[in-house]
Write a structure and sequence with these properties.
The protein is an alpha+beta fold and 209 residues long. It is built from nine helices and five strands, in the order αααααααβββαββα. It folds into two domains: 99 residues, Orthogonal Bundle (Ribosomal Protein S4 Delta 41, Chain A, domain 1); 88 residues, RNA-binding S4 domain (Structural Genomics Hypothetical 15.5 Kd Protein In mrcA-pckA Intergenic Region, Chain A). A five-stranded antiparallel beta sheet has the order 2-1-3-5-4, covered by helices on one side.
Amino acid sequence: MAVYHDARCRLCRREGAKLFLKGARCFTDKCAFERRGYPPGEHGKGRRVKETNYGTQLREKQKARRIYGLLEGQFRHFFAKATESRGVTGEVLLQMLERRLDNVVFRMGFAPSHSAARQLVRHGHFQVNGRKVNIPSYQVNAGDEVKVRDKSRKLAVVLSTLESRKGQSMPEWLSMDASSLAGRMLSVPTRASITVPINEQLIVEFYSK
C-alpha cells in the first residue's frame, strides 16, 4: 500500500493550520508551522491567491485527509460508504474516520500520532475483543475492547506516549485503563464529540460536483 513519505510539516504549512502530524514535536518550538507559518515552496511567503469556492472545498477535503493520514483513494472510499449509509453524510463520514482502529489507538493515547498508530496496528501490537487485528481501517464498534497484546506491553513508544499524555482529556466516547493497557469504545461518537477542525459540509459539496 502506498504511504506518504515526504516531510509532514509541509502539509500543515500547505493547509495553513497545525494538524499535529508529528506527535510531541508539534508542541515544541521545533514545530515548522510555528517557525514558518506560510505555504511551502519558493514563492510561498509572498504568494497571494484568491480563494474560490472550489478551492475552499478542496482545501477542507485535503485537510481532513491529512489529519487522518489517508490517501485520496482511501478517503474517497470512506465517503462512498458514508453516502450509502443512513444519516447525514458528512457526520457519518467523520464517525467512520474516528472509528478506524488506528485513530482509536491514537485517541486512547497509545501512540503519539496517527502515523505511529497505523504502524503499531499494522505490526500486530493490538487486539480487539481478544483477537489480533492488524488492519488500520478496521471499524471499531460500541462496546469493543482495544488492548495492547501481551507480547507488546513493554513497547517503549506505547509506554512513553502514555506517560507524556497523563492528565490529558480523552473523548467522551472512549475510556482507557493505563494499568491494563486496554481501552473501550463506549459509544459511536456524536458530531458534538468530534473536535477535529473540519467543516464536513464543504467535503460533501466537493464530492457532489
